[in-house]
Design a protein that fits this description.
elongated, 200 residues, 55% strand, mainly beta
Length: 200
């Protein structure tokens, strides 16, 4: 009967230095999750580290964006890609799914303030708003934002087109085409589709 000693030694050598090794192909084809001192990373089928154990948590690939996986360090979230590269440094308290509020963008938050990153992982809008609404709800290409209870708008380029300054903003085109009613401290006014105050 053939001895399995050689196989056992090769397995021990492959997994040497890790506190725990998960099954291959669970997260990504050809990779296995590994743990060292509570930190997670990945090895490939040759036993080589493709991602050094450095993360507290690693989510499934493709869950929030195709070919990316959510990672966290000390409560801050970022992303790695399928090449094992860190594409978004862990810096956010929360990251939402891509394409939820705007195609190619994901909502992010830091210390309760919201902003956006794009599909390249670049910060498009610095987290600065308490709330961000859906695009196109009030006006095509705009999303309502609020800071300290005051409302304004950003556009699809990520630019602030109406500074948060109003207590309330009504729908565009309700009273007149291209206009929306606004109020500050109980005083009513009107803004147009360019975001300019036409009556106050």
């Amino acid at each position: 009967m053939a001895s399995n000693t050689g196989n056992s030694e090769s397995l021990n050598s492959l997994f040497d230095g890790f506190d725990w090794v998960g099954p291959f192909d669970e997260y990504r084809s050809g990779w296995a999750l590994v743990s060292v001192d509570g930190k997670l990373g990945f090895i490939n089928e040759d036993g080589k580290l493709v991602i050094k154990p450095q993360f507290d948590q690693i989510g499934p690939f493709d869950e929030l964006r195709s070919s990316w996986a959510l990672v966290s360090v000390d409560g801050k979230m970022g992303f790695i890609n399928e090449d094992g590269k860190l594409v978004v440094k862990p810096q956010f308290d929360q990251i939402g799914p891509f394409d939820e509020l705007r195609s190619g963008w994901a909502l992010v938050s830091v210390d309760g303030k919201m902003g956006f990153i794009n599909e390249d992982g670049k910060l498009l809008i610095k987290p600065q708003f308490d709330q961000i609404g859906p695009f196109d709800e009030y006006r095509s290409g705009w999303a309502m934002v609020s800071v300290d209870g005051e409302m304004g708008f950003i556009n699809e380029d990520g630019k602030l087109v109406v500074k948060p300054q109003f207590d309330q903003i009504g729908p565009f085109n309700e009273l007149r085409s291209g206009w929306a009613m606004v109020s500050v401290d109980g005083e009513m006014g009107i803004i147009n589709e360019d975001g300019k105050v036409v009556f106050d």
